[in-house]
Design brief:
The complex is a heterodimer of chains A (384) and B (582). By secondary structure, chain A is mainly β. Chain A is built from 6 helices and 41 strands. In chain A, strand 9 and strand 10 form a beta hairpin. Chain A is globular. The mean pLDDT of chain A is 89. Chain B is α/β, with parallel strands linked by helices and 582 residues long. In chain B, the strands form 4 sheets. In chain B, strands 3-2-4-1-10-9-11-15 form an 8-stranded antiparallel β-sheet, covered by helices on one side. A 7-stranded antiparallel β-sheet of chain B has the order 5-6-7-8-12-13-14. In chain B, strand 5 and strand 6 form a beta hairpin. Chain B is globular. The chains are: A mainly beta (384), B alpha/beta (582). Chains A and B meet through helix 2 and strand 5 of A and helix 6 and helix 14 of B.
Chain lengths: 384, 582
């Protein structure tokens, strides 16, 4: 059995985190989302995997090359839609295949349920269905799919994970795959809707925190770095090679820390926190429920919660980020949100900066003592 | 410069050899040939690339075989000059990598004794000499051992005979690796063809002769039996695959942040202080091609940041200077097999200089010749145009400079990979369009950016075949200015620092001659932005990192230009990956 993973789209709603990588490559619990998808396939014995790449394809391909199993890469030069992406892989597909989005988490059990059924899709209830294709079911079979309706008739949505065969290609007319599936159903093919166990999609950047929490809970603790004897470590904590943790640091799992980090002394890391590789946490910092990517440094006496920090950021001392609710404008729609801050890549902020419910773009420079509350700061700007 | 592969085992030899030759194509690809021990010696050899024309070789029968992919040195690339070569009776076949220097004399002798030599190659004399010694009661091993003292020059040889189930391998000054598999044995110019079958390898020493049979492997040196250690090679085959990238070169460009970081981390301060610490007053660097440019960057940094005078020579010219009486001689070569650099290092050693090799290949010849070796951690590089090995060479040398001047630059070196990653995200399509339509392109820079300009020009001519020259910006006025016109784009490296102010006036002068200028500067630099036709703004950083970022952007420029022109990026015409002849 083959599997086709779609990882060509940028994931615009997750900006600013997609400047240097597509959404599928955003690290959650320190591994890119697509790696969880590939893992789930391999656990089901599916090793013939094709990945469709497009946006920032070199970064994706470079990552796929490091994996143990060989993966075939297909390029979609223009990101026109899911059906178009699938067509790019058509010549490599030999028979029955699974189709999966590379930027959603899926558990291996759900894949096991669907993989031997011809024409089936995984569905799942979601509290905000209007962001997805809403699925109407009748006795386990799909009767209709409505793509992103304004008023949703049901809470059951399509996960974008399908078990299909070559027939689908004769129904592809536009660039969208749901249209093709609808045509197939109209034409009398029966498509099963199978409920998924655990499926996670981060629609907006702050949803990554929930996905992070969920994926951290599956990790087993390991300790490869060096922790001072005065460090207190509780719960499931994973510490990578070359990382040093200074005395009097308290870490409460689930927490994952990558390689070659320098933490503490006297730091406090609370549950549901992922810290990438080569990250520096200066003394007396406090971090909880956050996702920090590679090569970032956080100054001493900072307090950071409910926050996503991109790569190569440098936050000076006494940075304070606290959670709040507010309306964020994403793709010209106001979205209700609750989080501390989202920082893109290479953000530099000065001492005593305060953030509340704010999206900070890539390459932004923020002067010391600024206070930023419920705002979007565009890429490459400077806050004085 | 050629690649050779041999196989002794229980499987059909031809497909294994053909696959192996494809992997060695980077060493040369103008003709190829395969000989197997089936019904007598079966032979297929052709002009052209094996990846295009392997079918005739694949049908050969037999479980012992040898193969060769050629980069012509003696005699034009054609079917007759292609290896393997056979003796008069067609029962002995030989493949050879290297050059036999006294071949003209040997050839005259052989012809006088009645042999028919049909090719123009130096290799053919070897097989006829073996034929003369391979009579009645001597075996093939003895015959080869008897011939070797007559050969002057460099060789890695594989020999098979229709009368014996064995393969003889011999090496002198050309690389040869033996791979130990499960009931099968491989021999090749390097590990790449062997990796998919085994990771256990023996690197033959100078003058070794190996007799390879299905049941046993014996190695002799100077007539007596010797044992050589089996080494485990940790390169995985994944490392040498193209992955999903359209070209090896692009893959390797994108691997540079990792290669740089790994290499910087791998160079140990204690080792470096030991090497440099004893006599830092006299450093000589010998290298060829891109490695020479890396050496030039090193010279600027070592003299500028550490105040240690450094002398830099082309390895091929080193022998014409009186050798340094004392001091440290550093040889830089990616493959560790570059013949000129090897000769220079040997020469330095014979004058009692301490020698240091900087190379990417574990177990390569230079690491055996030099007193000390620093390995770069670039992983195997397949593209002919050096990219990640170059950046890894810089990593080694920047780290040496950093350690020598009290680790002032630790922080910027450990963060350099992030800045390189930033550069990989940049869009340079405007500059690519300008270069694609040009007949010739000039690269100019000052100080440490002068070698970067040289390397940028080298990359451009290597793969895009556009005439490109690198100059020190000040030298441009002394002649090359006459060539400037609206048809000749100039790429100017104008980074903040001591070279900045003069570069600005140089750019203005070039603009005044009508040349379109692509300026590479620091992002947000209004002044350069205003005077240049196309401005590429790189992230700001220390001078060490500026050198790296400029270099990467020039690599990308050369690559995209070559792709736009439809060139064969990974195998540019007339070039081979490493030059193992002088």
């Amino acid at each position: 059995m083959q599997a086709v993973i779609l990882a060509a789209g940028e994931g615009k709603r997750v900006r600013p985190l997609t400047r240097s990588r597509p959404k599928a490559m955003i690290p959650v619990a320190n591994r890119p989302i697509i790696e969880y998808v590939i893992d789930a396939l391999v656990k089901n014995g599916i090793r013939d995997i094709i990945v469709v790449v497009g946006y920032r394809k070199e970064q994706v391909t470079r990552f796929l090359n490091q994996l143990d199993i060989p993966i075939e890469v297909v390029v979609q030069t223009k990101q026109l839609g899911t059906a178009h992406a699938l067509m790019c892989a058509e010549s490599k597909i030999k028979g029955d295949f699974l189709l999966l989005p590379g930027d959603n988490y899926i558990d291996p059990h759900s894949i096991a349920r669907i993989k031997d059924l011809p024409n089936a899709m995984l569905v799942k209830e979601h509290p905000s269905p209007s962001n997805f294709g809403v699925v109407l079911l009748n006795e386990g079979f799909v009767t209709n799919i409505v793509e992103k309706p304004e008023h949703s008739p049901s809470f059951m949505v399509s996960t974008g994970i399908y078990s299909l065969n070559m027939e689908i290609f004769s129904y592809i007319q536009g660039n969208d795959l749901t249209d093709a599936i609808s045509l197939m159903i109209e034409d009398g093919h029966r498509v099963r809707g199978i409920p998924a166990d655990d499926w996670q999609d981060a629609i907006f950047a702050w949803d990554l925190l929930k996905m992070n929490r969920r994926l951290l809970s599956t990790l087993s603790p390991t300790r490869e770095g060096v922790a001072s004897r005065q460090t207190v470590i509780r719960g499931s904590v994973r510490i990578g090679k070359g990382t040093t943790i200074g005395p009097n640091t308290v870490i409460t799992g689930p927490v994952v820390i990558g390689n070659d980090c320098t933490i503490g002394p006297n730091c406090c890391i609370l549950p549901d926190t992922s810290i990438g590789s080569r990250v520096t946490l200066e003394p007396f910092s406090f971090i909880g429920n956050s996702l920090i990517m590679d090569d970032t440094s956080v100054g001493s006496h900072s307090r950071i919660t409910d926050t996503v920090i991109g790569e190569r950021c440098s936050l000076a001392d006494h940075t304070s980020v606290s959670s709040a609710t507010g309306l964020m404008e994403i793709e010209e729609t106001a979205i209700r949100s609750e989080f501390g801050a989202i920082f893109g890549d290479s953000v530099k902020s000065g001492p005593f900066a305060r953030f509340k419910n704010s999206l900070v773009g890539n390459n932004v420079t923020i002067e010391g003592s600024s206070s930023i509350c419920t705002r979007c700061i565009p890429d490459d700007s400077m806050v004085i | 410069m050629c690649g050779i592969v041999g196989y002794v085992g229980r499987k059909e030899a031809a497909p294994i050899i053909v696959e192996g030759l494809k992997k060695l194509e980077y060493r040369g690809y103008d003709s190829f040939g395969v000989a197997t021990l089936g019904n007598g010696i079966e032979l297929a050899k052709h002009r052209g690339r094996i990846s295009e024309n392997a079918s005739s070789a694949l049908i050969l029968k037999g479980k012992i075989g040898i193969g060769h992919t050629r980069w012509a040195t003696h005699g034009a690339p054609n079917d007759i000059n292609a290896h393997p070569h056979t003796d008069c009776s067609g029962t002995i076949a030989v493949v050879h990598n290297g050059i036999i220097e006294n071949y003209a004399l040997l050839r005259r002798e052989l012809v006088a004794r009645g042999h028919t030599l049909c090719s123009e190659t130096d290799t053919e004399v070897i097989v006829h000499l073996i034929e003369e010694h391979y009579t009645g009661n001597t075996n093939l091993l003895a015959a080869v051992q008897a011939v070797l003292p007559r050969l002057e020059g460099s060789y890695a040889l594989l020999v098979i005979s229709a009368k014996e189930d064995c393969m003889i391998a011999a090496r002198n000054a050309s690389p040869l690796v033996i791979g130990i598999g499960d009931g099968e044995t491989f021999a090749a110019s390097d590990m790449t063809p062997i990796l998919q079958y085994t990771e256990r390898a023996i690197f033959l020493e100078e003058g070794d002769v190996a007799s390879i049979r299905r049941e046993k492997l014996e190695i002799f040196n100077q007539g007596s039996r010797v044992t050589r250690p089996i080494e485990l090679i940790d390169w995985s085959l994944e490392d040498v695959k193209k992955g999903g990238f359209p070209h090896y070169m692009l893959k390797e460009i994108y691997e540079q942040p990792q290669a740089f970081y790994n290499t910087v981390r791998a160079v140990n301060p204690d080792t470096v202080s030991r090497i440099i610490g004893c006599n830092p007053e006299n450093v000589t660097i010998v290298a060829c091609g891109s490695s020479y440019h890396a050496g030039l960057v090193f010279k600027y940094l070592l003299e500028g940041a550490c105040g240690i005078p450094a002398r830099l020579e082309f390895a091929s010219e080193f022998r014409y200077f009186p050798p340094p009486v004392e001091g440290l001689v550093i040889g830089i070569t990616q493959s560790g097999e570059t013949a000129d650099t090897l000769t220079a290092i040997r020469q330095a050693k014979s004058h009692n200089c301490r020698t240091l090799a900087i190379t990417n290949v574990l177990g390569s010849t230079i690491s055996r010749v030099a007193d000390m070796t620093l390995f770069m951690r670039a992983g195997p590089e397949m593209s002919v145009a050096a990219t990640k090995s170059f950046i890894a060479q810089l990593a080694v040398m920047m780290q040496i400079a950093n350690i020598t001047c009290d680790q002032k630059y630790n922080d910027s070196l450990l963060r350099a990979h992030q800045v390189i990653e930033e550069v990989l995200l940049m869009d340079i399509s405007e500059a690519v369009t300008l270069c694609t339509n040009a007949q010739s392109v000039f690269f100019v820079g000052r100080g440490p950016f002068y070698p970067v300009a040289l390397e940028g020009a080298l990359k451009m001519k290597e793969i895009s075949y556009i005439h490109a020259e690198g100059y020190a910006a000040g030298e441009l006025k002394h002649g090359p200015f006459a060539l400037l016109s609206s048809e000749t784009p100039v790429i100017a490296l104008c980074m903040p620092g001591e070279t900045y102010a003069v570069m600005i006036s140089n750019i203005k002068e070039m603009k005044a001659r009508g040349a379109p200028v692509i300026a590479i500067g620091c992002e947000g630099d209004r002044e350069v932005l205003d005077i240049a036709d196309i401005f590429i703004g790189l992230p700001g950083s220390s001078v060490f990192v500026q050198v790296l970022t400029c270099l990467v952007i020039l690599q990308l420029l050369a690559y995209h230009t070559a792709v736009a022109l439809g060139r064969d990026v990974d195998k540019p015409r007339n070039l081979a990956k490493s030059v193992t002849v002088e």
